[in-house]
Design goal:
11 helices
């Protein structure tokens, strides 16, 4: 049992790193009202990874990573320039179309590959259980740099997330673009570790829980981080005990925790 628990040390540390940056970005995403932007960008990154694999590079190679990053930057640019106040077509529609088209294109690209199903499964659910200390360290350093950048310009990023005033649109679009570019770095790296579904869960579920139950950016960050840590721990523990996929187990645990918190809050409010 203890040997099995040792196997979860680095995956759990990876989950802590993912929680740290994704909760913060998730609060921005929910504030912007573009809930599925992470899912769409994650799928764009996955498409880039698929292209790298089909061109002959390994899934974990540097070349494949930069191809995926290039695809993500294209998606980031698209989402930055399509955000306006009086859209005839809501930006969420653009995000949804991007997701479904890139997902379908990835399936088509792998349809003639003997290992296509395996690659698709890997890109969707990831392999956080097999993460290495090197990957955790590099990812932590990258996210730390992005976190410091956002901290120095936190006022501008928060205003850009809240503001949809057409008169300030050119200025807002600059910060939108910088937000999505840094977001793209995070998503591309996270998908490589955890897959599309788990990355989306790390971004949205803890942030939604924080927005529902506490007020103030600092309190919401602390609550979201605690939620992510607890959910990751129990999700990994469940995967170990029940011998089920780790990524899917964490996602379901997040969902169960959110339901439990919601029911508890409902009962307390009625009381």
């Amino acid at each position: 049992m203890f040997e099995a628990l040792d196997l979860l040390i680095w995956p759990f540390l990876a989950a802590l790193v993912l929680t740290g940056i994704h909760v913060y970005l998730g609060l921005h995403v929910v504030t912007r009202g573009v809930i599925f932007v992470d899912l769409a960008l994650a799928q764009v990154a996955a498409l880039g990874t698929a292209v790298g694999i089909l061109l002959g590079w390994e899934h974990d190679s540097t070349t494949t990573y930069f191809i995926a990053l290039g695809f993500t930057f294209l998606g980031a640019t698209l989402f930055a320039i399509t955000r306006t106040k009086n859209d005839k077509v809501p930006q969420e529609a653009t995000i949804g179309i991007t997701y479904v088209v890139t997902a379908a294109l990835m399936i088509l690209l792998f349809s003639k590959s003997a290992e296509g199903a395996e690659h698709i499964n890997h890109l969707l659910v990831g392999s956080i259980l097999f993460v290495t200390p090197k990957i955790v360290g590099i990812t932590f350093l990258l996210y730390a740099v992005i976190g410091v950048f956002h901290w120095f310009f936190r006022t501008e990023f928060l205003e850009a997330s809240k503001n949809r005033d057409e008169r300030k649109l050119p200025h807002t679009r600059i910060w939108d673009f910088l937000f999505y570019v840094t977001f793209g770095f995070v998503v591309t790296s996270s998908v490589k570790i955890a897959g599309v579904l788990l990355v989306f869960s790390f971004l949205i579920i803890p942030a939604v829980a924080a927005l529902l139950f506490v007020n103030g950016i600092r309190n919401r960050l602390i609550f979201g981080w605690a939620f992510g840590v607890v959910g990751s721990f129990f999700g990994m523990l469940a995967s170990l005990i029940l011998d089920i996929p780790t990524g899917a187990s964490i996602v379901v645990t997040f969902g169960v925790l959110l339901v439990m918190f919601s029911l508890t809050s409902l009962i307390l409010n009625k009381g």
